[in-house]
Amino acid sequence: MTITHNQLINAMNNANKLNNLRDSGILEDMARSLKKWGALTSGQAQFAQVLMDRNTDEKASKIDEELENHRIRWQEDGAYREWVKFLATFFLTSRQTAYAHHIDNRKHCARAVLQASRDLEGSVPCLKDCNRLTSSKLAPRLRDTFEKPLLYSVGDLVQVRASELNYGERREGMQDAMGFITEVDAMVVHRVATYNKTKGGTRTYRIMFPSGEQLREEREIKLVSRKNRGKK
User: Fold this and answer.
1) Are 126 and 180 members of one domain?
2) Please, are residues 112 and 85 in contact by the beta-carbon 8 Å criterion?
3) Are 115 and 81 in the same domain?
4) Which of 116, 141, 151, 192 has the maximal Cβ count within 10 Å?
5) What average pLDDT does the structure give for the chain?
6) What is d(CA 44, CA 49) in angstroms, rounded to the nearest whole number?
7) Which residues does 90 contact at the CB level (< 8 Å), separation at least 6?
């Protein structure tokens, strides 16, 4: 079989599109060898054919179509864009030890997505990076929190649930402390947990207590009942 230099280069380019980087490197070496020696050995030619069959124009065209669909979706589907950014923020900022390895393996994807989303020229994050985040085993549980409305608003008077206080906080009388919510960002979650219909999720609230400012998760706090508002 006769294999040309152009065929090898074309297959190499297709391999890059398909993210078959090992194939791409081998095809590049073969193209260099063919150019230098004028021909491939019989064994090289057989292997080259296998690689070319694995990295065809048809497969590369399908990737081009997927990339174009992703570009359109990112630019026109605001709900999808906000969901991916929500996931990226979680994976980049979370220090949750229970899933530390899983989270750390996605930080580089998360960083790339957020960098592209901030680009003023309208860059589109890599499809592979977005898929890496949306296919995470944590995504379904994070989706529950993402889709649910905030339980509390800035200005609400709240308390920390007794079940969420540690021994030191109890000794300091934190179970009786009331504070006003001063800030909340619905896009920021640092920990994944099953959403509770009553307690909510893991969005973070900034609360000003008499003893000072604290950051608390939604599931850790509750509104102060009317009968307790006048108590000290």
Assistant:
1) no
2) no
3) yes
4) 192
5) 93
6) 9
7) 110, 138, 142, 189, 190, 192
Q: Which of 108, 137, 166 is the last residue in one of the domains?
A: 137
Digit-coded pLDDT (tens) for 161-211? 999 999 999 999 999 999 999 999 888 899 999 999 999 999 999 999 999
Predicted structure pTM score: 0.77
Q: What are the distances in angstroms from CA 186 to CA 40, 106, 146?
A: 60, 21, 8
Domain contains 147: no
Question: For residue 141, what are its two tokens?
Answer: 């549980």
Q: Taking the CB of residue 121, how many other CB atoms lie within 10 A of it?
A: 4
The H helix count followed by the E strand count for the chain is 10, 5
Give the separation between CA 117 and CA 121, rounded to whole angstroms. Answer: 10
User: For 65-75, b where at least 16 C-beta lie within 10 A, e where not — what string?
Assistant: eeeeebeeebe
pLDDT digits (tens, 9 = 90+) for 43-68: 999 999 999 999 999 999 999 999 99
Q: How far apart are CA 57 and CA 51, in angstroms?
A: 12
Full residue range of the structural domain in which residue 206 is found: 157-228
Residues 6 or more apart whose Cβ sits within 8 Å of residue 112: 125, 126, 129
Same domain, 173 and 212: yes
Tell me how far apart the alpha carbons of residues 155 and 232 are, in angstroms, rounded to a whole number: 19
How many domains are there within the chain? 3
